[in-house]
Design the sequence.
């Protein structure tokens, strides 16, 4: 990856691993390139398989309204298949594993 495409760092808990999340990749894509397996299925923000919680940091979504309620968004839940890191993040993903 070139220096220009570097992005925020994302720590996955409770796994305790960190990966870089360039702005052109979703969290799910960036994790996959780093050898980290996050739960996934549809990859378009509808099935909610990748639902997890951001405990620190900020994201933006690649679609206008991902399959989350207002309450879930307010509580920090995201869908990693349609979320891009804006800052360093900590994600709570109990089912994450090393690929």
Sequence:
């Amino acid at each position: 990856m070139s220096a220009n495409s570097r992005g925020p760092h994302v720590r996955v808990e409770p796994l305790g691993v960190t990966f870089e999340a360039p702005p052109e990749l979703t969290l799910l894509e960036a994790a996959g390139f780093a050898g980290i397996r996050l739960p996934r299925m549809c990859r378009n923000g509808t099935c909610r398989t990748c639902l997890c919680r951001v405990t620190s940091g900020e994201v933006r979504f690649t679609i206008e309204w991902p399959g989350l309620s207002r309450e879930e968004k307010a509580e920090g839940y995201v869908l990693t298949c349609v979320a891009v890191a804006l800052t360093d993040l900590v994600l709570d993903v109990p089912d994450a594993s090393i690929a």
Notes: Residues 3-93 form a domain with the Ubiquitin-like (UB roll) fold (CATH 3.10.20.30). The first strand starts at residue 9 and ends at 13.
